[in-house]
Amino acid sequence: MRSRSPSLRFAMASWLVLAIGLLLAPAAWAQSIQPLDRIVAVVNQGAIMASELEQRVEQARSQLTGRGIDSPPDQTLRRQVLEQMINEEIQLQMARSANLSVDDTELNRAVRSIAESNNMTLDQFADAVEADGLTLASVREEVRRELIMREVQQRQVGSRVNVSEREVDRYLEQQGATQGVRYRLAHILVALPQSPTSDQVNEAQQKIQRLLGELQQGADFAQLAAAESDGGQALDGGEIGWREAGEVPSVFAETVPQLDVGEFSQPLRSPSGFHIVKLLDREQSGQSASGQDQRAQARQALFQRKANDELDIWLQEIRADAFVEVRL
């Protein structure tokens, strides 16, 4: 009998990060941007407008500044932001086709969680948002979008993941020195399409080697990720956050434990493309479990790892299947 799948915690475009970024954004950009009646991208039957792109570019620039990361050149930043918006639009179209929605109870709970994470009451959060030239209603809609995309990801990717008892046994045997260890990671991705040609592989290899050379010459990892990475976390400086040892993506699993804090890897190949991973920090949680609890934790960790791997593949698949026309 197949066990119930653990819940997914996808890393891409976290609504919490997004909302905090909105909170920290300067008021000026929200007031200065004028709507532009020009389409910058057609996505299937939908469209992305220039005014929407400019708003998101300024938001991304503010978020990078808040992280202490220099923004890429304007053209590069626009390209990165537009690609993110295209991926979001595809997922939102899928959600509409499936009649997915987020009710007000779930949305209120999410917004309240964001306020609490900023050590604010909901009223204080609303005041802070309005002081930055935004409205609580607009922030709520952004959070609603993120929750809907997370639901799409859970449905589409969760159904593709299964963890066997044999895999749990093997994981527990191999865990060893990494038991209770958490890693804070960042990565740069040079993506490959499905079934790439030899020329596409060679081009991606050349690019990842160029990026590796820049890092070895002292380039800032976060700045390079923001400008060059094809990963969903590019505009977060490539950071994918804290991961339990068992939740580290498969492509990084053997390499990360060997890295010193602050060190980055040689290029690694996965079905998604070529990666460079950097270990930002590590910590020992000190928590241990036994018996059935230990197996449950192992199953959750393996499920999350496989879900993260599948998510990257799925995002490439839906992007490849969509009709997209960029008009920058």
From TrEMBL:
- Key words of the record: Chaperone, Isomerase, Periplasm, Rotamase, Signal
Q: What name does this protein carry?
A: Peptidyl-prolyl cis-trans isomerase SurA
Database matches in Pfam families = Rotamase, SurA_N
Q: Does this UniProt record's set of keywords contain Chaperone?
A: yes
Lineage, opening ranks: Bacteria, Pseudomonadati, Pseudomonadota, Gammaproteobacteria, Oceanospirillales
* InterPro entries on file: OMP_Chaperone_SurA, PPIase_dom_sf, PPIase_PpiC, PPIase_PpiC_CS, SurA_N, Trigger_fact/SurA_dom_sf
Instruction: Kindly list the GO molecular function terms attached to this UniProt entry.
Output: peptidyl-prolyl cis-trans isomerase activity
| UniProt key word Isomerase | yes
Can you tell which superkingdom this protein's organism belongs to?
Answer: Bacteria
Where does the record place the PpiC domain? 180-281
